[in-house]
Structure formats: structure tokens, C-alpha cells
Amino acid sequence: MSNRLVISFRLVKASVDVLRANSDLLIYPILSAFGTLLLLAVFVGSIFAIKGFDLVAVLDSSFGFLFVTLFLFYFATYTVVFFSNTAMIGAVMTMLDGDQPSVGDGFRIA
Questions:
Q1: What is the rounded CA–CA span in Å between residue 46 and residue 48?
Q2: Residue 56 to residues 48, 51, 60, 68: CA-CA distances in angstroms?
Q3: What CA–CA distances, in Å, run from 12 to 23, 50, 72?
Q4: CA distances from 70 to 40, 52, 97, 106 (A)
């Protein structure tokens, strides 16, 4: 058990060292957060538009409607976050190969 903990701390330290060496990689989590907030705004706006911009109608929505909407929101958010993480990993892999990746390179790999 303690061996796994030591390995985990070594991986965290290595990850922090990579981020210190190339702080440009922080753009991927920032874009992921921006995409998630944009999705939240689109979903909340769509729900209010469907319900005629009436808060009472939104709160009185059926369980099925809310369940499907939350599932679609989860799926879209998961896709955005997974894509951004894949782009960041692609950029890091390019970095480890000795090249200097751009943000676009990471997204092209993803």
C-alpha cells in the first residue's frame, strides 16, 4: 500500500515539473473549463427557452425531462473534458519526443 503512495507522489511531482517547464500546457484545462461553462449556459438557456422562460414551469418539469437533460449535459461535458485532456496528453507526448507543440498540435492529435 505504501509503495503505491510513493509512486503516486512521484507521478505528481513529475507532472508538476512538466507544467513548470512548459506552462503553455495550462491552456488546455482553461479551455476545458470555458467549454464546460459555455455548455452550462447553453443547456440552462435551452431549458428556459423550452419552458417559455418561466421558472415555475422549469421547477415543475417532469423527472424524465430533467433526467434526459442532465444525461445530455453530462455526456456533452464529458466529451469536452475528455477531448481537452486528450489534447493535453498529445501535446505532452510531442514535448517528450523533443518537439515544441502548439495548442493546435494538441487538438489535432486529439
A1: 5
A2: 10, 9, 6, 19
A3: 16, 45, 33
A4: 10, 19, 40, 29
C-alpha to C-alpha distances, 23 to 5, 19, 84, nearest whole angstrom: 26, 5, 16
| pTM exceeds 0.85 for this model | no
To 10 degrees, what angle do helices 63-96 and 27-50 make?
160
Q: Tell me the pLDDT tens digit for each residue of 84-105.
A: 999 988 888 888 787 888 888 8
pLDDT, tens digit, 9 for 90 and up, residues 38-91 = 999 999 888 888 878 777 877 777 878 888 888 999 999 999 999 999 998 888
